[in-house]
Amino acid sequence: MPLVTSKEMFKKAYEGKYAIGAFNVNNMEIVQGIINGAKKENAPVILQASAGARKYASPIYLKKLVEAAVEESGLPVVLHLDHGDSFELCKSCVDGGFTSVMIDGSKYPFEENVRLTKQVVDYAHSKGIVVEGELGKLAGIEDAVSVSAKDALFTDPDQAAEFVERTGVDSLAIAIGTSHGAYKFKGEPRLDFDRLEKVQKLLPGFPIVLHGSSSVPQEFVALCNKYGGNLPGAKGVPEEMLRKAATMAVCKINIDTDLRLAMTASIRKVFFEHPEEFDPRKYLGPGREAIENMVRHKIKDVLGCSNKA
Ligand code: G3H
Ligand code: 13P
Ligand code: ZN
Fold this sequence. Notes:
Blueprint lengths: L6 H10 L3 E5 L3 H14 L3 E6 H7 L1 H15 L3 E8 L2 H9 L4 E4 L6 H17 L3 E6 L11 H7 L3 H11 L3 E4 L18 H10 L5 E3 L7 H9 L12 H9 L2 E6 L1 H17 L6 H24 L6
Parallel strand pairs: 1-2, 1-8, 2-3, 3-4, 4-5, 5-6, 6-7, 7-8
The structure holds glyceraldehyde-3-phosphate (G3H), 1,3-dihydroxyacetonephosphate and zinc ion.
The site of 1,3-dihydroxyacetonephosphate (13P) has 14 residues, from strand 3, strand 8 and helix 12.
């Protein structure tokens, strides 16, 4: 099966009340770890590359690694641009064989976000490629945050409906309390499910995306720290909240930090226990396996997309 767009995947995920995992890739071991996990779970998967990943690995290596993953696994795989920040970058990914691109205009005023997103949609759709937009600012909810502060940051449901209608995007990333990285919440973690429900009511059947959805499992934080790391106070989105979101309109859940944590903890362990080691296969191998295990866990216990390939 060749690379696919997320159109069919999201339709099935919406109807089946599950979500597809979108995992960030930067090198061969990460691609293999994710695809091995997805294969064992017989799950569809989105491999996403940021501008930084393309710079690190170079576009041609990333593309070929993902092609190898598709050929070897036979799974439905989407190659997606994560957080595209310009028309030119999105165009270069569409032209370079990506099957999905994100244009992240969330830092711009509404009208500019609409204009930029529509420009990308017009080009991508003319080539049969799908587009994810973003509206709202990703930020964890602090305990003391006021309703008006929340309204200023989080996605306004009416604006989301207008945005989708005017741009023609295929999916939309919204802000309901998740944020990037390992430090998401100062107080109790919480997501604004009422807001998600309002968006779902206004856009029935339309796929919603959650960025910043790592859960930062405390056992991995502890492992990292045990072997010489220092991640005090790291806190992510509880997995049961993601599970709930996946049964609602959320069809794509972005996870990068948890893979970084799993890989780094296992590599730290090798060096801690075998300081004499210098064969890269002896630490990158366990790193790849740690990613595979994390991806299997997410697919099975959080996203609910095992056996949906
Ligand atoms: O949301 C961003 C992803 O975690 C990718 O991060 O820009 O460091 O590659 P990056
Ligand atoms: P995390 O940092 O929570 O893994 O989020 C990743 C992400 O949103 C990639 O776009
Ligand atoms: Zn993101």
